[in-house]
Design a protein that fits this description.
The protein is 42% helix and 17% strand. The relative contact order is 0.16. The strands form two sheets. A seven-stranded mixed sheet has the order 3-2-1-4-8-9-7, sandwiched between helices. Strands 5-6 form a two-stranded antiparallel ribbon. The protein has 235 residues and is of the alpha/beta class. It contains eight helices and nine strands. The model has no long low-confidence stretch (mean pLDDT 91).
C-alpha cells in the first residue's frame, strides 16, 4: 500500500527548521517501515515560514522599486522553499529514499513504481501549492487518501482566530469544503487545503484527512486505520 502525506511546511519550518519535530516524524515513519508490511510512503513537503518570508520580501522590495509584484514569481520563490525542505527530509530518510526529490508529479517515474520505501516530492510550478502535487501523486500511484498534516487539528467552519462562532468539523463533503476554501489560489494562501488541489481531489474521488502534524500518536492512528482526531473531506 502506498500512503501519501502532504507535510505542511508550517510544521517542518514554521520560521526556521524544527529539528525536534523532524526527528519525531522521521522516527515514526521509520518505525512503521520496520514492521512486516509492504507499506510505502510518498511525502510532499510544503514551504512553510521561509516561503512566506521570502515572498513577503519580494513583494516589499518590488513595491519599493515601483514595480508591481508578479504572482508567478512569488509562486516560484515559494516552490524553491518546498524543494529545500523536501531535500532535507529526503536526506533524513537515507537509504529508505533512493529516488531524487520529485518536482514534476506527472513525469520521471514509471507508473506505480519507485525504488525505495519512501519518496519525497516538492512544489512543481506556479498556480497551486504542494497540496496539489500530493493529489496528482495519489492519483498516479493509486492511493485513495491524502493525509494532510498542518498546524491545525481540524477544519473549522470559519477562522477560529477571528470568529468565536467557528466550529470544528469532523466530516465534510467536497462541495461544502470548497465553499469554505474558495476556488482561487494566491501564492502563500493559508487554507486547510489548496483550492486547486481540492477541485482535483474532488474530481478524482479522493479522500483527504486534515490533522495536526505534531500529534504523532494521532498520525499513527490514521495510518493504522483506527479512530483519529481530524477532518475527513470526501465525495
Amino acid at each position: 500500500m502506498t500512503r501519501v502525506i502532504s507535510l505542511g511546511g508550517s510544521i517542518v519550518a514554521p520560521d526556521k527548521v524544527d529539528c525536534i519535530y523532524l526527528q519525531r516524524f522521521v522516527g515514526l515513519i521509520e518505525t512503521l517501515l520496520t514492521e512486516d508490511n509492504a507499506e510505502r510512503f510518498i511525502i510532499v513537503v510544503g514551504g512553510g515560514g521561509p516561503a512566506r518570508a521570502w515572498q513577503a520580501a519580494y513583494r516589499e522590495v518590488s513595491g519599493a522599486l515601483g514595480a508591481v509584484p508578479d504572482d508567478g514569481q512569488a509562486d516560484w520563490i515559494g516552490i524553491m522553499a518546498t524543494r529545500l525542505n523536501a531535500q532535507l527530509v529526503k536526506a533524513l530518510f537515507g537509504r529508505r529514499c533512493t529516488d531524487d526529490v520529485v518536482t514534476n508529479p506527472e513525469a520521471g517515474l514509471t507508473e506505480g513504481i519507485f525504488t525505495g520505501r519512501v519518496l519525497l516530492a516538492a512544489g512543481w510550478k506556479p498556480g497551486f501549492s504542494s497540496d496539489n502535487d500530493a493529489v496528482l501523486l495519489a492519483k498516479r500511484f493509486g492511493a485513495k487518501t491524502v493525509i494532510n498534516l498542518s498546524n491545525i487539528e481540524k477544519v473549522y467552519t470559519a477562522d477560529p482566530k477571528t470568529d468565536p462562532r467557528a466550529k470544528p468539523i469532523d466530516s465534510i463533503r467536497w462541495e461544502d469544503f470548497r465553499v469554505l476554501s474558495g476556488d482561487v489560489w494566491t501564492p502563500g494562501k493559508n487554507v486547510p487545503f489548496d483550492p486547486v488541489a481540492s477541485r482535483n481531489a474532488a474530481e478524482a474521488g479522493l479522500n483527504v484527512i486534515c490533522a495536526a502534524g505534531g500529534d504523532m500518536e494521532n498520525l499513527r492512528q490514521i495510518l493504522r486505520g483506527a479512530a483519529y482526531t481530524g477532518t475527513l473531506i470526501h465525495a
